[in-house]
Known about the structure:
Distance between the termini: 29 Å
Radius of gyration: 21 Å
Order of helices and strands: EHHEHEHEHEHEEEHHEHEEEH
Oligomer: single chain
Amino acid sequence: MNHWPWAEQFVPDGIYLNAASMGLPCRGTREALAAHLDAWAAGQVQPQDLDVVIARCRELYAALVGLDPDTVAIGSQASAMIAPLAAWVPDGAEVLVARGEFTSVSFPFFAQQARGVRVREVPLADLPTAVGPQTALVAVAMVQSADGAILDLPALRDACIAHGTEILLDLTQAAGWLPVDLDDVAFTVCAGYKWLLAPRGTGYLSVREDLIDAVVPSQAGWYAGEDRWSSIYGGPLRLAQSARRFDVSPAWPAWVGAEPALELLTEIGIAALHQHAVGLANQFTTGLGLGETDSAIVSLPMTESGAAALADAGIVTAGRAGKVRFSFHVHTTVDDVERAVAVLAGSAPGVG
């Protein structure tokens, strides 16, 4: 698709191929944050007014990834949202993770080893066959941060159903470009500052309805109350009946910025976002004489001359796991990809 009008919402200085590290703010986000800052400076912001913004973000996110809003809690960082799930794992049980998994997913479970929780790392492709009767949970990213590899979720789901094992799926590198069928997935977590284009400090945790009472909301505070404005002082515990009981007190400006970004992504639609991102990534790899990956993230070995050529051309990427990582999203254009291919093709050679 040569004409992609949505890219006009963004103002990168150069070519930005780094959504997997940090998404760019769209026009609506920049305007909303500027207006919020002015209102805040004028003393015209009331915390209660922002409940509407957060409720809207919860609904938009749930619709984007295919969840019931009542199963979605809001948070800030992936590892903090995973912590209550790590505590839910029974003493002595096994947790299966992908080898080389982003540590915000795996570290909360490694931290449970003192009570006998065993964390086993296996290659991503081997997860379905590694699930066994002792496996209480598989904790894995739908899309791997290091190289963009995509989990075979249907195969993993079948294996987990056969063994009574639950799944925690990290959607941080998937939500916003990859359609995912979340049927039978017990838990999901997602940081909002990458592909969801929000300021850092927004995130989402989902807990399947039948497990809401089983997970202890150990981070519960006033914002987790059924009527949050009457639960700010004193006992007894009076938490929300829905997954809102896992809410943490929001960083308000971040959520002000998140709402327009989610509205933009919803307007475009996940199917078009997927087609655009993967199409550009495949154009990039085929332009370099490589095979298609069908992921919005491409990770390549790179010579020093290639990395230097990218930097000199103002092309922003990220170094991950000894390679250079490129990521393609709503703010990427065909011209961006063509320029990156031309730079690497002329770097003698760029790709190692």
